[in-house]
Amino acid sequence: MLFTFVGDWANPCRNSPSDPFVIVVEGTEHVDALLNAARVMLERFPILRDFMTEEEFWLHNMGAVRFAEFYGDKTTELVHGENYLIIRE
Q: 3-state DSSP call for residue 40?
């Protein structure tokens, strides 16, 4: 099943590696999709691996927060979608 996660970096005071982001990933269930999304972000920004694991990505103060999550690929429905880094796996 496809999931879409809309997020941003948890610590706005540091230099974030990118803009707010949207990740579209597969997962057999919600928890699997969260881990897959974390894996994708840690692969894209390998420096983050020095601070956290996939399991910690959504919980770590240097990781990310989720603003919204959806079933399916909802990237075409984003308002001002051009403001997001969109990652599809």
A: helix
* Among the listed residues 14, 27, 29, the one whose alpha carbon sits nearest the alpha carbon of residue 39: 27
Q: Report pLDDT for 2.
A: 97
Distance, in Å, from the CA atom of 89 to the CA atom of 82, rounded to the nearest integer, reads 18
Could you read off the pLDDT of 38-87 as tens digits, one per residue?
A: 999 999 989 889 889 999 999 877 789 999 999 999 999 988 888 888 99
Find tokens 């079933």 and name the residue: 71
Q: Which three-class secondary structure state does DSSP give residue 4? A: strand
- Residue 79: both structure tokens together: 């308002």
Determine the length of the chain: 89
- How far, in whole angstroms, is CA 8 from its chain's centroid? 7
**How many whole angstroms separate alpha carbon 51 and alpha carbon 31?**
21
Identify any residues that bridge with 88 across adjacent strands, giving them in sequence order.
Answer: 24
